[in-house]
Amino acid sequence: MQHARFKLALLLVWFLVSFGGAYFAHDLQALVVRGWPLGYWIAAQGAVLMFIAIVVVYCWAMDRFERKDARRLSDEAEAASSTPAAVAPHSHA
After folding, report:
1. What are the distances in angstroms from CA 43 to CA 7, 8, 9, 22, 32?
2. Taking the chain (93 residues) in consecutive chunks of 10 residues, what is each chunk's mean pLDDT?
3. Are strands 32-33 and 36-37 parallel, antiparallel or unpaired?
C-alpha cells in the first residue's frame, strides 16, 4: 500500500508540473528571469529537470522499498524455519 501511495504522490507532482505550468503559462510570462519569461524556463528546462528528478526519486524509493520487503521476508522465513514443525502422530497397524 505504501508503494501505491508513493506512486500516486509522484504522479500528482508530475501532473502539477506539466499541466500546472501550462495552465499558468500566461501568468508566468509576466515574470522575467535573465531576460526570458519564467514560462519559457519552466517549459524549456524546469519541467524536464523535474521529470528527471521524479524518475531518480522513484528509482531510489523503489530500491529502498524492495530492500525493506526482502529483509522482512527473510526475517519471516528465518522465524518460520526456527519454529519446530508439528509432528504428525504415527499410526501403527
Report:
1. 23, 23, 22, 8, 14
2. 89 87 79 82 82 95 92 88 64 61
3. antiparallel
Length of the chain: 93
The answer to whether 39 touches 21, Cβ cutoff 8 Å, is yes
What's the pTM? 0.67
Copy the grid coordinates of residue 5.
501511495
Alpha carbon distance 92, 90 (integer Å) = 6
Torsion sign over Cα 26, 28, 30, 36: negative
DSSP 24-72: THHHHTTSEETTEEHHHHIIIIIHHHHHHHHHHHHHHHHHHHHHHHHHH
Contact partners, residue 10, CB within 8 Å, separation at least 6: 54, 57, 58
Q: What is the pLDDT of residue 77?
A: 86
